[in-house]
Amino acid sequence: MDRTEAAPPPLRVGLIGYGLAGSVFHGPLIAATPDLTLDTVVTGHPERRAQVHAEHGSDMRTLATTDELFARAGSLDLVVVASPNRTHVPLARRALEAGLPVVVDKPLAATAAEAQQLASLAAEQGLLLSVFHNRRWDNDFRTVRALMADGALGDRVHRLESRYERWRPELKGGWRESGDPAEVGGLLYDLGSHLVDQALTLLGPVTAVYAEADVRRHGAEADDDAFIALTHAGGVRSHLWMSAVAAQLGPRFRVLGSEAAYVKDGLDPQEAALREGARPTPGSRWGVEPEIAWGTIGDLDARRPVPTLDGDYPAYYEGIATALREGTSPPVTAAEALAVIRVLEAARTSARESRVVTTGLA
Length: 362
What we know:
Strand content: 15-25%
Number of helices: 10
Mean pLDDT: 95
Low-confidence stretches: none
Number of strands: 15
Radius of gyration: 21 Å
Strand order of the largest sheet: 14-13-12-11-7-10-9-8-15
Largest sheet: 9 strands, mixed
Structural class: alpha/beta
């Protein structure tokens, strides 16, 4: 007789928000994770509810309010907060108080104090709190991390240069471009969240922060062109650019080492693929980049192409499922997310006061 234990049912996920984050990233990636099932989507927009049903089936449960979601908290195993930034803290707190693990889209909070309060609450409740810093699974970042681990750039890295630049001279409108501090808009906290998280992941804690944040476009209210310089505890410097007004784009990565440099142009293909309706499937390659897009490594005298590792956004929610099943750390911890907010908060102070802000870690 086959006494093999039956696999447990998938963990049930409630997704709050079905805008860009919910529809392009979280919804598809949750649905593609074998150990998770998208159980409920909360959106107050009738057209977005129709989109949910078109993309996830007519029987997908949709709710108009978070009150309805939390009223049935006992039927869920995880809540994902993919709603506007101003709602991240109150909704994450409400999920934790309801006894539910929670994933929050970046940024976790506007201030380090708020982020610390959430992290402390999660620890007190013994619940998972993670932030969707999916760009750790970009193909180029995975490649940089592997090159550094292998010593391909030399025995030390001098400087990390990293950019997320766009050419969007016309305003699109919406809360992301609002000047209201409560909205937590602007590129410093948007694209900057990814860039800072990547720098901390690669190079460790930061001792000093210098930043510039400008409003360039006519009629804009939130920063749309920013720069952050980080001094890491090990002495390496990170220079990070984020812009909506880059008519020509700089390299995505330029990493300078003691023996060689790695330079990579272009963007990871996963977001574009998800926007176009492609979905990762188990057993099939995902996030694959053509050879023509590979970066190069070397010096002025000799350079060679470096195959770009495949992107792997599905790894994030696979890691979340494992953490929930086995009680292990999530792929992005609350402490790591808090460290990002501390740097962003210091960057905002630096830009406002035109000075270097020290973190007290020296």
